[in-house]
## 1
Amino acid sequence: MTDLAEAPTVAPADGHGHDEHEAHPTFTGVSNEKLGMWMFLGSECLLFGGLISTYLLYKNRPGAIEVRDALGTARTGSNVRVSEAFDIPFTSVSSFILLASSLTMVFAVTSATRKETERVRLWLGTTAFLGAIFVGGQVYEFTEFYEKGFGFTTNVSTSAFYTLTGFHGVHVTVGVLMLLFTLGLTFRARIPKAQSIEIVGLYWHFVDVVWILIFTVIYLIK
Amino acid sequence: MAIINYRTPLELESGSTASVSRPMGLFTRPSQPKGWKNWVFSVDHKKIGIMYGVGSLFFFVVGGFEALLIRAQLARPGQKLLSAELYNQVFTMHGVTMVFLVVMPMGAAFANYLMPLQIGARDVAFPRLNALSFWLWLFGSIFFNTSWLLGGGADGGWFAYAPNTGVLFSPGHGIDFYALGLLITGVASSVSAVNLIVTVINLRAPGMTWFKLPVFTWMMMVTQFLLLFAIPVITVALFLLMFDRLFGSAFFNASLGGDPMLWQHLFWIFGHPEVYIMVLPAFGIVSEIIPVYSRKPIFGYRFMIFSGIAIGFMGWGVWAHHMFASGIGPMSVTAFSLSTMFIAVPTGVKILNWLATMWGGRLKFDTAMLFAIGLVSMFTIGGLSGVSHAFAPADTQQTDTYYIVAHLHYVLFGGALLGFFGGFYFWWPKVFGHVLSEKIGKWHFWMTLIGFNLTFGPMHILGLQGMSRRIFTYSAGQGFDLWNLVATFGAFMIAVGLLIFFANMVVSHRAHKKHPVDIGPDPWDARSMEWMVPCPTPEHNFDEIPTVTEMDEFWHRKYGHDETGRLAPIATSREVAQEGDAENVHLPSPSYWPIVLASGTPFVGYGVIFNLWWAVLGGVLIVAGVFGWVMEPSTEPGGDHGDHGNDGHVDDPAGEAAESPQAELEEVNS
């Protein structure tokens, strides 16, 4: 509103300076991009809400499909739950790594507001790297589970597990790609705005927060 | 007003080096496209609105044809026009088409065209994302309908209950097309919701505070929030359905430990807000029409707004009234019965406010007004039969009978579609520069209204007599014969009404070509800001963005009070309205990439269903679209914009910079 007051007859659509990529004056003062990201994240809450509900419904309902245990002996699935395969220390470490990446993301945003390009690169790269370790850990974990006999179609509890964690893994992967892309842009002539990095950061923090929820629901609650 | 800026393109590009102006030869923006390219690559909210309108009317014809097939099959007992299998497909495709490919995009058409004009903006917040929404919707819709040619349409009913949608009971690919097609159109709706919400929050003209927004914009705003939160829920449900059918999981398969009720809950948590997503835009439209033709301001403006918001909130707490017959338990039934009765209150407030607006007004019964009154009366009937569903004992009798079919058509045809028809007549001059014929319009209205009541009125009786919905035929002597025949007759009357509407478009256009009539900017002596610009709307919308001081700003610029306090005209519309002749107004440049990106999605769909190589092709198109989108300059180098003269000015319109890689990536991947 204050921005508009300075140029009351100028439409938001064209009332901005041309020589810098600062935020466009908007009615609320919040940039369109950031507001759009918040709206999108609001929508994402319902997506994960639906997936988490599905998991909670099915986690103790393994079906009667035959599964093999770690020794390869076949047994019916009525009492086999995907939770039997969990390696909680391993997943805790990878969760910690993901959470640490939120901190490095904050460093990246701070460096960007200070226009310290070298540090922006460092912290964006670190964040992407930590995110990639988390995704790698998930791939490893999935492989382990599969070898223990828990496939996607083993029973409804495994299906729900892989669906929920898989959707989250895809979100982290997308986040890593966004980070790498932003990192790439810092090497081009057009340095990304601090705000673009902040918006990537919003997404990244969201994905981390959702993981705290998922980790608690899947691994910590019996 | 136009910011005129005489500088060279190189100098202007965001203060960085020259290479940015043309990053790569490939990634330039379309330069002054003509003909079909002017539409296909357009990011103009008005063109996108018109394309949504054309698309939704096309699918209205498709869905209407399917409806006529249903009615022809049911006209007489024991009819053999459609087999049982084909009948299942036809009613499912009819329902899905009408809900997702007609009513929702028709609302989007009005929202796209009118919301930026009503709030005094040049375009939406993210113009390219707006184009992407439209093309995703269109490609998703076409993809869904190609199922007819690739093994048969979906056959599980529009709400696709398990286990009917399992591979066992629906071995064809129809349900796969349903799941994937609705995922694609769902992405379109989500993108569009984010875009329009940000537009209304951020791009309002100076002084346009929340309680000066027109009611239509308010209702669209509530609708977009409902979409924002409802679409992800059905996205989850559709993914689970797809995994069940294509990858062998058993989320909805009771014999393998799954739970069919999960689908019902997920679907209706989406599905009930969806009902309001369909009807609130029409409520907004009639809230604009009725004051104009009653020559009174809307009665209880704030009540109107708050009841809309209340509907938006309460719409989330009534979903299980669709499931009273599913055995959800007495506590749940009681709770949802009560909440369903309560939600009738804000809707009733709206009805009473419309009546109070008309009360004592100088009513003028033009076609738009007739349709608006049609909505108020027909929706009231549908609302009353809806309240009768809130009573669980009655509802268990009515579930899956024609009574439900009658109810839902009274609220969706009598509510949403009558409102949209009124909107067409009301805003036609703003969009196309000439009015639709009133004489033909009245034929259209009466044919539609009478046909509608003949079709769906008797269904109340059929339902209470016990005729099941979704039964492909019935035997004689059950007392169903007469009313089914009447309903079929009525359905064909509606079809004739629609043909009259199309004829009206052609006849009125030709009459205008032959004897152009200057209707000025404001043929109806209207109230809101979209009438402050010429008819048809110039490409740049407003010459100068008005500063708003009143609710119904345009009206208050035309009318004041004399010494005795009586209403008196102080200026004519032509004096108040803008000329539309501003030059050098900078608008978002067209873009190739929204359509490229969207065109990949059906191939991914075919790939998942038939052969993954198609998905590779789709993936390549999507990646190319994202990449091109990110890499293209924010405007065509050195180009002008539309017809507004070449000033060599390069701009970075609001929303273009917004569409940075991250925004796209998640939209695509969500």
## 2
Amino acid sequence: MLSYIVRRLVLMIPTLLGMTFLVFMVMAMSPGGIGGSLLNELGQLDSQQARAQKDYYERRYGIRDNPLVQYGRWLHQVSPIGFEIDVNLDTGERRWNNFGFKWPDLGRSLAMKRQVTEIFAEALPVTVLLNVLTTPIIYALAILLGIYAARHRGRLFDVLSSVSLLALWSLPTIMVGTLLIGFLANRDYLPWFPPAGLSSLEAHNMAFLPGWSVDGWERGWLLDRLWHLTLPVVCLLYGSFAVLMKLMRTSVLENLSSDFIRTARAKGVTEHRVLWGHAFRNSLLPLITVMAGILPSLLGGSLIIEYIFSIPGMGQLMVEAIRARDREVVLANTLVIGLLGLLSILIADLLYAVADPRVSYE
Amino acid sequence: MSEIDALIPHPGMPAPEPTALVQPPPRDQARQTLLGMVIQRTFANTGAVIGIAWLGVLAVGAVGAPFLASSYPLVVKTTDGQWFFPLFRYLTAVDVMLPILMILAIALVSLRRFSARKRVVTFFLAGIVVATTCLLLIHPQRREVFSEHRELQAAGKVQWSISPPVPYSPRDRQRDLGYPTYLPPALGGPHWMGTESSGSDVFSRMIHACRIALSIGFIATGIAVVIGVIVGGLMGYFSGVIDLLGMRLVEIFSAIPTLFLLLTLVAVMPPEWNPYRLYAIMVLIGLTGWVGYARFVRAEFLKLRKQDFVQAAIACGLPLRSVLFRHMLPNGVAPVLVEASFGVASAIMFESVLSFLGVGLVDEPSWGQMLGEAIGAAGSFKWWMAVFPGLAIFFTVMAYNLIGEALRDAIDPHSQRSTML
Amino acid sequence: MENRFGFKDFVNVVLLLAILATMWIAIKQFDRQWDDIKSIKSEVRALATAQNQLKNRIEDLQKSGVTAGPATAGAGGAASDAPTHALDDIRQARSAPDFAEGDVLVDAFGTNVKSVTALTYKDLYGRTIQNYVLESLATQHDDTLEWLPLIAESWDINDNSKAWDEYMTARRAELTAQIERDPTVLDSTRLMIRREQEKAGKPIPDALALTEQAREAWIDKQIREDPQRPPAMTIVFRLRRDVNFSDGQPLTARDVEFTWTLLNNPLLDAPETRNFYDNVESYKALDDFTMEFKFREPHYLALSMVAAFGILPKHFYSKFSIDDINDRPGLLMGSGAYRLEDPVNWGPGKLVKLVRNENYWGPKPGIVALIWLEIKEDVPRFTAFKNGQIDLFSATPEQYIELRSDPDIAAKYQAWEYKAVPSGYNFVAWNLERNGKPTHFADKRVRQAMTYLIDRQRIAEQIFRGFAQPTSGPFDEESPQSDATLKPRLYDKAKALALLAEVGWTPGSDGVLRNKAGQSFAFTLTYPSGSQDYEQTMLMIKDSLNDAGILMTQDPQDWSIFIERVDGRAFDACALGWGGGAIEGDIRQMFHSSQIAGGANNFTSYRNPQLDKLIDQARRTINEDQRMKHWQACHRILYEDQPYTFMLRRKSLVFIDKRVHNVRKVLTGLSGRTTWYVPGELQKRRP
């Protein structure tokens, strides 16, 4: 098992290299180029001054060099082994000293003038929170309703659900998000939910849990956060839910019609026990495999949702970084998202082995 | 659903690896029957019929857009007895070409006397002839004066005229009628679906957007399928090193969420491509979407490679091209068709998301772009800009998904078994 | 069977996870409370020290027998209302009968503030913060535009331009002669230019042009490096002796000198600012309270360059390395009326809050704290405003109209519509030369025709709802720089077509204008993407040009690409806006022919020798009346030549909470926030 994991981890390296190389070259070849984000944001193009600034950065970050060299430099920067580098700002010369282990460095965002790690430390928890909230809900709902539909095969609920699941799956997120904000978070219609953000402005001064304070009822920080997350989570979950529920239903049906269930029934095991004791666990297998695909796609999906609901997570960060041609952030984002994606595939494979004793990776 | 990447199997697709398909039947005559059977079974599915019907509506909208929604009347008779045909002055080569090709296609489909191959060949030959003549002969008037007819009418110079059912062009911002931005829809009024942020008619833009949506869906998926089949086929046939390298490539593309990659590519597109932005976006969606097809074809080919008829073909010394494309591909392509149907749906979704995010086409009617303008800067919500385009995207995606489901049921004996349970 | 993962285990795991999550959130919450307590503690500490210092100061004053009071008050007496000191406006506010100290003003920024560190901040938001924390030697009064002393008591300007001129002519002649005697002196310069061009990947000019360039460069270098060269101007400031920074340390000329030394450190990440102040040749503290500046060239903005530059405390900034100042986002301390709560540790993501400087050496403002919330999206900002969470709100025309008619808003807020005098303007720039060849727009009649065809009146009314007006040139209509007799060319299709016909553009059979070569009149208009206003305006231009038979293609580009195209002159026409900038705007960078080469800001490649001369003259003229005459002549030439179609000047539309008093409309916009106050009974927020 261990050797399998190690082999998979090693195989990830070329994939990650390929991904970042692809993205790096695309950005390097684009007009506006890597240096595009260096210009000031004032919207006034004082070219002479902007140029002075560009020159400064070009020397500091070596932006005028061959893209391949720059990519190599970036790789060196994120790799855990390498040299210490001294840059002479006047000449742009680099000196390489002391080969050895070092901390991988995601670099410094040129447009935001901050360490990328620092930016990620703010954005990643937001996206992870969204997904951590969503995934269990999706799974719980999909499993329960899937079983229900399978048990009541051909009845009204099942028929209705199979049509509506396809519809649910086809619903464009951009439409659902827009409609939810438009009708449920709008003072012209129903102002039930906040239109944007993660918490209210005054959440800063709220107690954690809801309760009565001097000014009367106060919803508290937690409830406020949940209130803000309701619509985004709804948007994020319905699509994957449709897939999973359908999958669950099919898989329960398949299991219920298989031989070992027939044997169990023949032995006189109760229907309840057949379902929960025998069929349930086997039916979960396909859902585990799918989890690998769900993670990266949820991350991608949060891009749209974060954009619509103005949630400052990784998706919004990525959109901004791409618009500003902020090389370091885009690359680091690709690296992190890619790594998460690959890891989730690996974890799903391992889970599969854990759940299904027939599968072995020895 | 756009968050669902190609990675996730589609509803009802239980295992990540495609299941074995129909055993390779004796070639030639069996292929016909398989195709016929598939078509027959697909048409027996109510969902698929509804989906096809909706696509038919869209196709009519896409092909006949200038005749359905345009500020220029078809015929005008002025009070001094002159006849004008304003619409025809503005028709582009594509506007003329599409209806001719559509009529041709319908005619050929109904001509059952000839073999399918003959009909397809005729269609392509005729298509090339029609396209070149149209492109060579048709030069529309480029200066567009949308208010022309309205001004004539106001001056009382029009005796009678026939206008398209929606008398507004998608880019007619009605400068002569004030600045009618964000008019709410009024059934029976001038703007059935209201107007958008710059004053053009939403209904007209909806109709003209069909063309973009449909063409992006088809062409992007076409590109993705071609790349996927070639890469997947090579990987499956040769396996070994090529397979290993190919799988890394597949992994690279499937580990980055497609939307991230697409957004990066579109955003950094050289501005010189802007006149061809539509095609560039099609190609980019195609380039990012081939992974799923490659996986399927690879898995199929890995299985087919070991089978006797392929081994026989190789033993006969047939060239690689022939082995791959004449013998293996027809037997391994079925799941790709199913996949492609879902692929069209997701390509349409991606285009609308790009337009929604504001990196799509410029001054071209698009559903996603209208949806993106539904919530104004002041927080005012123009529901008609969200509901109509949103539903159009939804119905179209749903239609393709229904067809895909039906195709899968028709092709895949495994899922049939589960349906028959 | 026993060790299988059953449903019960599943529930258990879920429960466990839930407990863990709750614990984590609880910890997070404790953390936040702890942060709050920490900040309260540091505040209390700061207050205590402030109190101590105040006590000391009062004691000092009592000892020396002087009563506390404004130093220059009474100088003008009651006879004249005109302020004689920059802080007189605050004094006046304080003398109002309902004046009270207290309350907090909450504003919102549309983005996250990235850095507020002095000199290295990069955006408008950083600059806004600087204005409250740093003080300069003198400031321009916001209504009279007169320079009033602030940290300086007085100053002397020594205009040495005559001697400088003489030196320059003589030296130039001398150097030219030297080159003629020995052309080899240029060799190294020539080589350098060649190398630089190669490095930048640009084509190398032919031998003749290269020699010409090298000669200019060499002469400039010799003159620049000549120690004998007299300064073009000298300004000497005498500083007040009672000014101190917010930590109580006195402000002296050494701090002023330090500020300029820091700016001119090549390692400091402020190259664009450094470049802007290049004209300041030397800065020297003559003694603790006298500061001398010398200038390389005579320039009308010389005084404002040095007088308006914020002074940094030497004892504070010298504690940090250059890398620290470059990289840390929150290093900001000054002598201004407000200060950062913590001058060292502010960082992005933390609340942008300025508190009143209780050590302030001048009269203290009424508002005790200024807060800027960071709300990126329009809709939430709007909601926050409607809920009374923010006290100031800049509205779009659409929002303004909607809000003004809302009785709730009218009861709670005062609405201000104003056009600040150094107002910015939008324009469409016509590229006269592309790839070395003249374009359609090379003829000024075509450019005039384009201006006639763009219906600016209508754009102002329909897109900006009347809160904008067409402009005739680069200078504000209300500024003395502009020639008031010039009226913007309004929409006139007939005139435009006549002008175009003169040049040879006549309508073809399809209605599109064609020239004699049969080319149709088509061009691409490049503009920054992402703004609804731009998008709508471009559509409006496109439609009205189309109506006249000119085919325009829209080309929205991201800002970074847009700049690249403008720098490379790779566009037919582009739309952009210039910000207000200095109160007396300088048009050299946009229209002087010396600014064409090397990606400088005359990106239309517009040349007019007469205008060049006028601009140079105006910039060198220190006498205001004469200078205005030159500027007006420039305006007339630009009006005739139309290298840009000058589009619109927009009005600012601002809502301010009614409880805030003493908000006045002044020439440069609204009166400063230091003069605003909230009467006691209306106060709403506790600091």
